[in-house]
Amino acid sequence: MTSPDRVLQTIRALLAKAESTSYPEEAAALTAKAQELIAAHAIDLALIEEKTGRGAVATRIIFIPAPYPKEKYMLLGGVAQANGCRAILGLDDEQFQHMVSSGELFSRNGNYATVVGYDSDLDSVELIFTSLLVQAVNIMLSHGAQVDARGRNRTKSFRRSFLNGFAWTVSSRLEEARRTATESASTEEGSGSVLPVLASRQASVDEAIVEKFSKLSRLKTSVSNYDGIAAGNHAGNRADLGNTRVGASPTALR
Hints:
There is one protein chain. The chain is of the alpha+beta class. The chain is built from eight helices and four strands, in the order ααβαβαβααααβ. The chain has one domain (4-139, 167-223, 239-253). It has a four-stranded antiparallel beta sheet. Helix 3 runs parallel beside helix 6 (155-189). It starts with a helix and ends with a strand. The relative contact order is 0.20. Residues 240-254 have low confidence and may be disordered.
C-alpha cells in the first residue's frame, strides 16, 4: 500500500489545482480524484489500525471564518460525517477556557468547530472541507450582488442559501459515496472483517462526544432565498466527489 504521507501529498496537489482553476468541470474532476484516493485508503487504514492497535480517537479544532460561519459549518458537518467523524459547532469546556485565557478565542472573526474522529479520518476531513469551502466561496462570489424584482438587495440571503444548498448537496453525495465504499470493501474483504471494525470506530467516536460534550442540540437553519438554494445545489452537483471507496460553547451536533 502507498504510504499515507505520499497519498496526502498527492491529494493536496489535486485539491490545490481544483481551487485554482476557473473551470468548474476541471475542479470537479480534480476533487473527485482526491476523494477517490482518500476513500480507497480510508478502510485499509482502519483495518491496519485495528490490527496494530495504533488508532485512537482524537479531536481537532477547525476555525470557520466569517461571514456565514453557521452555513459553512453545515458543509464541515457533512464532510465529517461522510468520513466517519462528527463535528460540533463550538468547543468543550477545557478548550473554551484555554482559548479564553490565551486570548485566541476573540482574536479572529468567525467561529470554532470541534471535529471528533480518528487521526487519519480527521486529516481527510480537514483537507476536503478546506478545499470545498474555497470552491464554494469562489462560485458564490462569482454570482455578484443580488437584487429582487423590486430592486431590494438580496445578496446576504442569497449567499446564506447558496452555502446551505451547496452543503446539503455535497453531503448527500458524500454519504452515497461512503455507502458505496463500505459495500465495495465488504465484498472485497468480507463483511466479517470490515463492518465490525467500522462499527467499532464509529461507536468510539460517539462515546468520545458524549464524554466531552454534556449538552448538545441540533443546529437549525432556514432558507429564505430559493435562487440561492438552486445555485448552491447546482454548484454542489458540479463538485462531484465520485461514487468510489472511500462559537464559544458547544451548541450543535451534526
